[in-house]
Amino acid sequence: MDLLRRISEALQTGSIEKVATLTKQAIEEKVVPRDILDKGLIAGMSVIGDRYKKHEIFLPEVLLAAKAMYAGMDILKPMFLKDEMPTLGRVVIGTVQGDIHDIGKNLVGIMLRGAGFRVIDLGKDVPPERFIEVAKKENAEVIGMSALLTTTMPAMKKVIELVKKEGLNGKVKTIIGGAPVSAEYAQHIGADAYAYDSINAVDCIRGLVQKP
Amino acid sequence: MLMTVLTQLTVSGDWFKNRSMGKLLERIGSGVVLVADGAIGTILMARGLQPGQPPESFNLTRVDVLEAIAKEYLDAGADIIQTNTFGASRLKLVTYSLQDAVEEINKNAVLAVIRAVGDRAYVSGSCGPTGQFLKPYGDTEPEQMCDAFREQISALISAGVDVLCIETMTDLQEARCAIKAAKDIDAAVPVMATMTFNHTPKGFRTVMGVTIEEAAHGLQSAGADVIGSNCGNGIEKMIPIAREFKRYTKLPVIIQSNAGVPELKDDKAVYPETADFMAERAKKLISLGVSIIGGCCGTTPVHTKALRRMVDSCVSRGCNQTQSRDV
């Protein structure tokens, strides 16, 4: 449908006001909210994610598109029952304790929201206990942890140990990422997955929530 | 030609004495290669900096440690010693509720280095990114960002730095904002400006997508005196980066590489590139005409010492010719 395609295209060019106007128009024209979300906003963000992955665009374009996506989502939110957007799953994310680098983590949040996940972003320098507390409260399926400093990577291990200690093993999956992090390290500390970038994180988390 | 030789002789003759070691720009202009120091942050971690604690907190509590590190780099042979002020702008310090201590934090760091090195090395005021994105990508107004740089750089200059180093930049607009702030405050203080690049299928780019060509033009037109790259890469990727900078600028080039990309061993960060490895590869930087060579994350006074030895032996044995053959 033309209107949804226009929402997706406006989002890709980072036209915040245009996405907001078109989303309002779609609601007025009684387009199914789920379609506005999936075929408009999420479709546009997935193109952005793909182009970012291919290095066709860089961070500024992604940040602008994300702003446009949030503008659309804010207008769309009241259209869903109980204020709850349809979701593929709930993911708690944060930069681990001792680390204040959050560009990568924010990108993961953008891409996850853009893919239809509900994201609870705990910010940066997040104590291990906080990940567990919020994951329990929000009934999250996945905890995602980010670190840029090699020296803060051991904090990821602490969170994973807490997941086991709290008996959440199997119920809450863990995924880690960040410049110094590797698949080997994920395996070493017992994380369920490792993502090498924000797009890959979405694919991995899709896999994690589908597994029984 | 004769003038150049004379300048060089005069400068090297007096170089250990007061600022008659010569003005930095004149020295590199005459062909001298200078050695800049290595990392501070990773050394502070080894000396008690806790995860989550800002490195600049040492400027309020442990200036003795800063002095000791500066002294070690001086003894290792560095010509340029950096202050521990990478994250000492208001916009960065606010993360730690230290935004009201901008002046003190910057001043203390400069004075610590001056106490340690006297006039035997250039004191370089480090100025890193604010950690914020400018509008429209982020929420920070350009004015707000420029003011933060103006405040920090003004504190660095009045405390007595010889040169400024605006480093690890990824956004050209942010870097230009800092350079212009410095030149507005005191145009006579030389400004070195470096950005951090990743290797992508589209060539070297910062995370904000800035190419080396764009960086070279943008940093230069904002008023930087020396430009180049620091951080993000080990020495080997810095060679093509330096080559590209030389293609797009006539300004002197500075390269400060990491000691490779760190690996975790027994929960400790280990940087893989040894001092000898870095110094050996850095010969290529000299043959490319790089004017200032130093270290970034993971490098130590041991790396500085190796770089010093390499630079000195290149000067006496003419590294340029021998190296150019295998470049």
Automatic annotation (TrEMBL), chain A:
MF GO annotations: cobalamin binding; metal ion binding; methionine synthase activity
GO biological process, one term: tetrahydrofolate metabolic process
Superkingdom: Bacteria
Record-linked SUPFAM superfamilies: Cobalamin (vitamin B12)-binding domain, Methionine synthase domain
A Gene Ontology term for the protein's cellular component: cytosol
One Pfam family hit: B12-binding_2
Alphabetically ordered keywords of this record: Cobalt, Metal-binding, Methyltransferase, Transferase
Keyword Transferase: yes
Residues of the B12-binding domain: 88-212
Entry keyword Ion transport: no
SMART domains, alphabetized: B12-binding_2 (SM01018)
Domain B12-binding N-terminal: start-end pairs: 1-88
Family membership noted in the UniProt record: Belongs to the methylamine corrinoid protein family.
Protein name (record): Methyltransferase
